[in-house]
Model the fold of this input.
Amino acid sequence: MIKRNLLLLLVLGLMSTGVFAQHKLSLNIEGVASEDGNICFAIYNDEVSFLKFDKVYKSGSEKAVKGKTAVNITDLPDGDYAIAIFHDANGNKNLDTNMLGIPKEQIAFSKGKMKMFGPPKFDECVFTLNSNMEMNISLQ
Done:
């Protein structure tokens, strides 16, 4: 009976590592204009929260490196995600915009691009993560 219970626990433990797999997402942010400030990222996992600062799934920043900045994000479970990125060149931890709401700092998204009248939608930026992944993203 004890051996059977131990075997069951072992099997459940092995299954849980596959079911709740955590992945690494490596981002190569290209087109970084300067070494000033940081490259900030926000990860969203649904359409309702997309681009809402108070509903970010995961966020962070890395020191900007002129030309290309590497960002490594760990502990992401399988799922659909969209990423918004900006170069916070002045280090104020905010995306600076003009009076019309147009960004003054470089921005980028996991897939979609800024449109004439606003940012892309979640479904234009979404990608599926089910293993470790590397992605190249160019700042605009």
